[in-house]
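Field reference: sequence -> structure
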Amino acid sequence: MSRSTGPQVSRFRPLLLRIGAAVTVLAVLGAGIWYWQKQRAGKDEGAFRTTAVERGSIRVAISSTGTLSAISTVTVGSQISGQVLEVLADFNDEVRQGQVLARIDPKTYETQIEQGNAQVASARASLNQAVATQRNAELDYQRKAELVQRQLVARSDVDLAKAALDQANAQVAAARAQIAQQTAATQTTRVNLDRTVIRSPVDGVVLTRSIEPGQTVAASLQAPELFTIAEDLSKMKIERAVDEADIAQAQAGQPVPFPADAIPDRQFRGEVQQVRLSATTTSNVVTYPVVVNVDNADGTLLPGLTVNAEIEVSRRDEILKVSNAALRFKPATAVTGGGIGGPPAPAARPAGQPAGGGLADDLQRAATALKLDAAQQEKFDAAQAAIRQRQDARRNTNAQGGGFGPPGMIVMSGGNRADIEAQVRQRMAARMKEDFASFRDSLDDAQRKQWDTALSNLVNARRTTLYRLVDGKAQPVMVRVGASDGSTTEISGGGIAEGDQIITGERARE
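Structure field:
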């Protein structure tokens, strides 16, 4: 007999309705909180996307693939033809100079030597016969020469005796030449007999062996390759093909760190030994070979390994850098210190930092790299102090209304932008040369060359405008642009400091 369930369902229905109502209220409340947080986050983010100025290192490198090989590799061939009797060296064998590597059947040359010896003996017998004939002809001529004076023989008999003597002399000379010829031919055969023994020309390791016992080698047109010997595997090289766009940055002495796929847990180092001028064009791409020397004292690296080597062109440590996205940002409209529109406002400078502080840091970094002595450092500090005093005096004059433009501003004659920039660089170079003349005179030749290069790089550095976010507004800042590793770029000047927020883009307005 079945039991009725109607009263139980009626009892639980109000409870289910209350639970459903509570879930609905919580869902609506959660959606409201989410929407409120989104709106608040959008207000906090502001109108711009930014990135912070960081202090760190930038490493500029040229990357390409190359193959490891021995610095000196010798191919051992055969100058004579014949059948290989035995092979005395195998792959990876260490060999010494003069060590026998293989032997070729010498019977042909031994037989030729025996024939040559017999021909030499025959030539000597012919010489003896010619000498006897010569002596007889000489005696006959002397007798007839005496008799013709006493008119006992005819003059024609004397002439015939003289002709016979000359003929005998010629036969002796021919016999001697025949001996020399046969001796030389025999000596050539002896040289070839010695060549049937293949010896190592250097100390090294056998990389390849191309012959087997019983094989016949033929050297009629060119010497067949029998062995390849690496002279010294403790020193290896990488031959890399560097694109023409990067070859100007490659120089001898630059470090080259690289990993090897076969040895993933180690990092190896090499050094650029040579930048070759023999360009190669493949599919309209011009490349130049660069030779990198690698120390392989422990024998870990093997010939033929493919490595992805990076030539370290430059490395800048403890510098300010910013994401490349900040360099690409250009506002849709003119940006000033007060917002959008109006004339650009000068960049704000952190308290206590003198004008051109970025340039001062760069100059200090260049001087530190010179490893100055006390006297040289004193002259450099004096030049820096004089520059700061002049900038402070100009800034005070401008603050009192006695000057025109911001501190350090150079007023140039009219012209296009490129001409103005060239004039600015020229004036700046002349002023730097004047300010640091005494310091430069205290340097030695190597230091002076390094200082001139650093100063030229600073003066001719590329400049660009970044936009710093200050109180929610975009502020244009002119900075010097230095080295770049593809994702970040070195910047200096313009009062830029570590932690500054630089605009990389504008947020879409809802």
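Note: The longest helix spans residues 107-149.
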